[in-house]
Amino acid sequence: MLTVPYAVYARGTVIHHTAIKIRSVNRPVDIGGITVEPGEVLHAGKEGVIKIPPGCLEALPERAADMRMIEHLSHIGNRRDDLNAHEERDRTMGLFKKYGFI
User: What is the pTM of this model?
Assistant: First the structure.
């Protein structure tokens, strides 16, 4: 059986193929303890949902690429067998500093 990971964040539970009733459009909605305003940008995954502050949007693509590089380099370093746990941690923290996250 083929499964597709698909996250749904909703106020309630519905059965598959149920009729959807749209009550309003372009209005704030409360979901999962947060209020989402029209035009806000969200990021969702297995871990949950976050709102991205408007002031961060311009820098987001570059910072996401930087974080991806940190993850890549960190995984390479963590595969080494000549570093102990403290050295691996220090190396990864150095990557965060190098890319300006701390």
Answer: 0.62
Show the tokens assigned to 68. Answer: 């991806």
Q: Give the phi and the psi of residue 8 in degrees, each rounded to 5.
A: -125, 130
**Cα–Cα distance between 60 and 96 in angstroms, integer?**
16
Cβ–Cβ < 8 Å for 30, 11: yes
Per-residue pLDDT of the chain (102 residues; tens, 9 = 90+): 667 776 666 666 767 776 777 888 999 988 777 899 999 998 887 787 889 999 999 999 999 999 999 999 999 999 999 999 999 999 999 999 999 999
* DSSP output for the chain: ----------SS---TT-------SSS-EEETTEEE-TT-EEEEETTEEEEEPGGGTTTHHHHHHHHHHHHHHHHHHHT-SS--HHHHHHHHHHHHHHTT--
Q: Where are the domains of the chain?
A: 60-98
